Amino acid sequence: MLFTLGVNHKSAPVGIRERVVFSPDRMDEALTGLTRSTPVDEAAILSTCNRTEIYFRSEAHQPADRVLHWLADFHRLKPGEIQPYIYRHAEADAVKHLLRVACGLDSLVLGEPQILGQLKGSYQSAGAAGTLGRQLGRLFQHAFSVAKNVRTSTAIGSSPVSVAFAAVSLAKQIWGDMKPLTALMIGAGETIELAARHLHSNQIGRIIVANRTVERAKVLASEFDAEVITLSEIPARLAEADILISSTASPLPILGKGAVERALKARKRRPMFMVDIAVPRDIEPEVGNLDNVFLYTVDDLEEVIQENLQSRREAARQAEEIIESQVSTFMGWLQAQSAVSTICAFRDKAHGVQLEVLEKANQMVAAGKSPEEALSFLAHTLTNKLLHDPCHAMNEAAREGRLELVDAAHALFKLPSLTNKIHS
After folding, report:
1. What CA–CA distance (Å, rounded) separates 400 from 39?
2. Which sequence positions are flagged as catalytic?
3. What are the strands, taking DSSP E only, across 233-278?
4. For a Cys staple, 199 with which of 71, 123, 204, 419, CB 3.0–4.6 Å?
């Protein structure tokens, strides 16, 4: 059976979500540890700022309980600390959940495309760790195909709506004209790049990019005529920032209350607008208590985002219809897998009978029998041998009153109905 277990922006606040984040450098360790210490034989983990989800396959009884305890142990938590925020899905519901995630229907920003790339990263990580088997691998591939279908056949991605877009929209509401302003971008990932693009299109005066790896920041800065600094230079340059948007993978805050207080003093109390998109948070929550600081987290952006979603809602309804159909398609494939071993065994048995009878027919020809006689023997014997076991089983079933087996054979071999035979 297939399962999903996780938390997201709907089920848990950022304070909980940041405690169960899987860093990229520990993903292989997590995946192999999960499959070794729980009754899980296929697994993939999706971990972003808005969600941590474990997709897995298991034939054990109530495996989700074991996975929950493993999740807590991995992050050095007690199961009770995260239990109230966890959601679980099984079989068709798990399939539907993954398809909705891939299409952006379960995102903070309806229809946002970034989640699909993050899912592909999870798929690749699981493949590299050797935890992606036939069923889970097929499910992810199906999800990618459905997401592509939804993107091309609906208007789900027609409006520029994202966390980055919402952050810049909010900054514009607060500041108005952006030409005289300076923006400090901390990080150089996809979200920061998108935010920088929106700032640039709104004619921001100046952009400074701070990142742990200067080379990566230079690639981003070159697109927007931005200045590049290291993370260690932030305290000295913080006072220049009218707008600060941060999204790094740092496990600890990189901007504290003291540094911001000193920057405000240097700015002569001119306000600062900050958006902390990172999970775990890059900016200490206490910074939000300072006068003249407007600090927002991803959770705070939801109201802003809602104003930009109307054009996507009808597309989302269309996408839900596509997903319902595709859940049925995948579940049909999944159910068919239970018959694969039986079909293979049946074909192997028939092939064995074929070789046995063919060998005897060849011996007849070699012994001087005519080809017509050998072919007649081949057809008659092959038919009898292939039909013997099914006919015997149906007779036994009828004697024992197991008529459902007879009915199944009728459908399996596509036999004409008794009524039709009488009328003919």
Report:
1. 40
2. 49
3. 243-246, 272-276
4. 204
